Structure prediction request, 243 residues.
Amino acid sequence: MRVLIAIDKYKGSLTATQVAMAIQQALARCDTAWNCDLCPIADGGEGTVDAIVTALKGSWMAAPAHDALGRPIVAPYGIGQHAGISQAVMEMSTASGLAIVSDLPPNPTRASTYGTGEMLRHATAQGVGQILIGIGGSATNDGGLGMAIALGWRALDAAGTEITDLPAAAEEIASLQPPPNLNLPPIIVACDVTNPLLGPTGASAVYGPQKGVQDVPFFENRLRHIADLAEKHSAPELRDTLG
Prediction:
């Protein structure tokens, strides 16, 4: 008999791969003639990268990075072949997540997506043709500013001086200067929400309190300022994109 084991994680206990292997071992004790196919699955949340890397028969990489509060970490992500393309699969929460800074008080003023940018930079250096990144579970409310800095963008004040205390000093930014040789592969962002960046259903109002945001108007204005700067280098409807 051939058995397909398609199962999600046991949250907080076992990954989907570990659960599937446990079932396979149990079935083997019942009948060694059974041929089991393991197919870990996920719903887009925790464990999704593990399931995708397993499905792609990929390998794991380790990116030197920093967590949301600037401490050095090693951020794992996977690489596998999909439709003939080398694809990196990663989760923003691996570098910039709430869980890895839960030992410290929330600090949304300083929490940065810099580590996520370091992961993207590392994957790009491996020569991948595409990056899939899940964006749930972050500890940050910086509009991706830290990520951009890690990828070589420079934040300048009105005098043209580079600002390094980011995102805390985001209000002082007068312009963003793109890097001269940024060559990222296509990036697919995976998320399961339909929130815009700003407004009553935006990032600060809905998700900010989970990250320690108390003064929602302050962070709303900060994100609006970052969007104003970013949209000088992108489509003007960026802030209205759902997700």
